[in-house]
Amino acid sequence: MQVFYDDLKRQWRIQINVGTLKKVRRVFSEDGKPFDLLDPHLPTRLANDPALFVDLLWELVDKTQNPGVTPEQFAEGLGGDGLEAASEAFIEELFDFFPKARRDLNRAIYANVKREQDRIITETIQQINNLPINGEKTSSSDVTSSPESSE
């Protein structure tokens, strides 16, 4: 069971088991076919559709922790950091559902993907920070050289 906090500091527990798989299949469908939590393309689909992810998450969280919270109020607590925390908890809980060998394989793949994403983000930020502003040159030789004389 994984835990996350939403943006309103409410704690939520997620649990994925055969019972929740069956529940999700009953509640969600796509083109008349049951929604499958074990679909290998699901993480990408959910990352591209936060509203679908939050609807799915609502079916997986322990609602007894925050009685009286409606699906709309739940969704209002998920943006930015809360959504990221929920995503991480969901992925970890999904990994925990599988037997050890597959769980270890999934975690290794995910760790490599995260490392690559972090590297790309870091490099992109560095490139953005090195962009010239208003025609300024930003190479290291330009920064250390003295201004040209106007003779």
TrEMBL record:
Region (Disordered) residue spans: 132-151
Biased segments, Low complexity type: 140-151
Protein name, per record: Uncharacterized protein
Organism: Rubinisphaera italica
Top-level taxon in the UniProt lineage: Bacteria
